[in-house]
């Protein structure tokens, strides 16, 4: 998660975020080259004392500065389109989780298992001394196994919300009466924080998301314990 002084992107925890980071670096390189070239030309033109009295038109340079931006845009658009299709790709999932946004908390349901569902609220100020991060910790984390393809089905019960975790490169709107779907894979264990990124009312800032990536064995133990508790 980001800390004070972090100017770059968060460390990626999924293949999707890795591709987003590569595309960001690719685009920033092109922008830096363009900015440097245009800045050099502007400064050089401002301090240049020479004038060409016979330069009224130059079709060659007009052709170049018409075609060259088009080529540059193609170099940006092709990786962007590839990435858009990758983000929408729905692979064969090993685990399906349904999440519903409420004002102002999230509820989760593990559709592949019986009677495993819970609500996830932000921890109250009384719990801050025992929590890791203010306004980001929740009472019920969302455990998932890492190196496992996850399908997340997202909806809302009242207003539009948005389920977002930056380090995974996933973001999907939770719309009442509609099911949205995202697919992702977490490639390392850890805690991954997110927040609702759609303004949804007075307490919009107080419905964090906390995903806990654990091993498959630990996840199956958690499933077994919760299944027994619900019986």
UniProtKB/TrEMBL annotation:
Its main location: mitochondrion. One of its GO terms (biological process) is ATP synthesis coupled electron transport. It comes from the Eukaryota. One of its GO terms (cellular component) is mitochondrial inner membrane. Its cofactor is Cu cation. Residues 1-91 form the Cytochrome oxidase subunit II transmembrane region profile domain. The chain crosses the membrane at residues 28-51, 63-87. Keywords: Copper, Electron transport, Magnesium, Membrane, Metal-binding, Mitochondrion, Mitochondrion inner membrane, Respiratory chain, Translocase, Transmembrane, Transmembrane helix, Transport. Binds a copper A center. The keyword Translocase applies. It is found in: Mitochondrion inner membrane. It is a multi-pass membrane protein. Component of the cytochrome c oxidase (complex IV, CIV), a multisubunit enzyme composed of a catalytic core of 3 subunits and several supernumerary subunits. The complex exists as a monomer or a dimer and forms supercomplexes (SCs) in the inner mitochondrial membrane with ubiquinol-cytochrome c oxidoreductase (cytochrome b-c1 complex, complex III, CIII). Component of the cytochrome c oxidase, the last enzyme in the mitochondrial electron transport chain which drives oxidative phosphorylation. The respiratory chain contains 3 multisubunit complexes succinate dehydrogenase (complex II, CII), ubiquinol-cytochrome c oxidoreductase (cytochrome b-c1 complex, complex III, CIII) and cytochrome c oxidase (complex IV, CIV), that cooperate to transfer electrons derived from NADH and succinate to molecular oxygen, creating an electrochemical gradient over the inner membrane that drives transmembrane transport and the ATP synthase. This is Cytochrome c oxidase subunit 2.
């Amino acid at each position: 998660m980001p800390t004070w002084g972090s100017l770059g992107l968060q460390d990626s925890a999924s293949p999707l975020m890795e591709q987003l980071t590569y595309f960001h670096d690719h685009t920033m390189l092109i922008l830096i080259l363009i900015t440097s070239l245009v800045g050099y030309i502007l400064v050089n033109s401002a301090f240049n004392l020479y004038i060409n009295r016979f330069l009224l038109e130059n079709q060659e340079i007009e052709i170049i500065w018409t075609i060259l931006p088009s080529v540059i845009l193609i170099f940006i658009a092709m990786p962007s389109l590839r990435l858009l299709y990758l983000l929408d790709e729905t692979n064969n999932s090993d685990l399906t989780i349904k999440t519903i946004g409420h004002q102002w908390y999230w509820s989760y349901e593990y559709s592949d298992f019986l009677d495993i569902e819970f609500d996830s609220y932000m921890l109250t100020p009384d719990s801050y001394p025992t929590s890791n991060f203010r306004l980001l910790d929740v009472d019920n984390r969302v455990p998932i196994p890492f190196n496992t393809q996850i399908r997340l089905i997202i909806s809302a019960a009242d207003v539009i919300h948005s389920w977002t975790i930056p380090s995974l490169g996933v973001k999907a709107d939770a719309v009442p009466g509609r099911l949205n779907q995202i697919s992702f894979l977490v490639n390392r264990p850890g805690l991954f924080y997110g927040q609702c990124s759609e303004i949804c009312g007075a307490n919009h800032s107080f419905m964090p998301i906390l995903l806990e990536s654990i091993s498959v064995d630990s996840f199956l133990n958690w499933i077994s314990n919760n299944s027994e508790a619900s019986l």
